[in-house]
Amino acid sequence: MSYVDEVYNYVVEKNPAQPEFHQAVKEVLDSLRVVIDANEEEYRKDALLERLCTPERQILFRVPWVDDKGQVQVNNGFRIQFNSAIGPYKGGLRFHPSVNLGIIKFLGFEQIFKNSLTGLPIGGGKGGSDFDPKGKSDREIMAFCQSFMTELFRHIGADTDVPAGDIGVGGREIGYMYGQYKRIRDTYEGVLTGKGLTYGGSLARTQATGYGLLYLTEELLKCNGSDISGKTVVVSGAGNVAIYAIEKAQQLGAKVVTCSDSTGWIYDSEGIDVELLKEVKEVKRARLTEYAAARKSAEYHEGRGVWSIKCDVALPCATQNELQLEDAKQLVANGVQAVCEGANMPTTIEATEYLQQNKVMFVGGKAANAGGVATSALEMSQNSERLHWTFEEVDAKLKQIMVNIYHNIDDAAKKYGMEGNYVAGANIAGFLKVAEAMKAQGIV
Ligand code: NDP
Ligand code: 2IT
Asked: DSSP secondary-structure letter at 349?
């Protein structure tokens, strides 16, 4: 049996009932075959892949808090410190009822390669909780965040592990967690990113994942003889990534006709009104029905459906496995040219293969959504030098990073005989740097 297959079986056996983690590992290992097979004996002797697929440290903890009725609630907290070969652990925190160990491990595993692709010195980690922020008062959110940090603080630090936001964790939650960290440690340090602008946050971090996704998509289309301007785009999600993807797509001259949340989706024939969407989602924290109620050209539909709309470019920006084989077939039938992932692993393996077989340009999240964590690393740099850069400076660096990522993954795919396979290109380019650093640092 090849070393790749041995290690995949090992991961499944050692991590039972974690299907998303198995999926993330399978996608990476399958596309690394050409690299691994050429160095099989050396890698096997060093157990390089077993080490890569086993987190350096896994922290599981209880998070008790008191709700507005005086009732004590208990949630599970997680922080997976996956790989620190190229820098301190770095990656977001997700608060969503679906969170479990396998979800956090898939996210932490992907983060290793994504962070490597940014070219910046950050290792891979992820954390979160099965806490559901929906419908909670501000006081309940603060109580939860303070309790969460009262355990997490001992495991993190500006040079150790630097969490940030993800689903359910935005500026409000980062603020409450930062305040509690500072209070316990009595240290003012850049321990979290995505901070507010008055206390060490970076300009353009809020926009970075969505903007970065569009900078990469723009370069992808340009290098393949096309142009983002004038394209019809469908976006899923209506959170941080989706909103700023829509905003930048419009700035680049595209027309975005959909967005979605966990209960339904919008088709807006006039193009999404991004200011209205921000008002509904960022300010009121309301459902998309409110968007439809305020806008004549918008239709609201219950359930899923954005992939049924005819488009040139599709940008999944909500959550994992939201774009499935049937959706991929519909997109191809409707003539889609490119699919770029704003979310982490939103496309199933079968859907990805179908898109690739049908010559759709497909860029996975490790490359396409790396702008968020890259700008987090820029926030860390600004915190270290105790200076702030302008929006234009950060945005220009972000754009350059995304353009570089596109060319690195394109070059890696070509070098290994898989031209146009940007998934393989990203996994290989991300892996090689981490593997080299792990080898240089010995058996740790
Ligand atoms: P938000 O919490 O801001 O928004 C998430 C959006 O996706 C919401 O519209 C939400 O709907 C919807 N959604 C979440 N879970 C589900 C689900 N199970 N089914 C259907 N819809 C769902 O999160 P982000 O925008 O930050 O994150 C979106 C994706 O991007 C995630 O995969 C995340 O890991 C990834 N990502 C985020 C980065 C960042 O910087 N924030 C960086 C890189 C990747 P509702 O409003 O109903 O909750
Ligand atoms: O998935 C991701 O890259 C993020 N949620 C952002 C992580 C970060 O540290 O900014």
From this structure: H
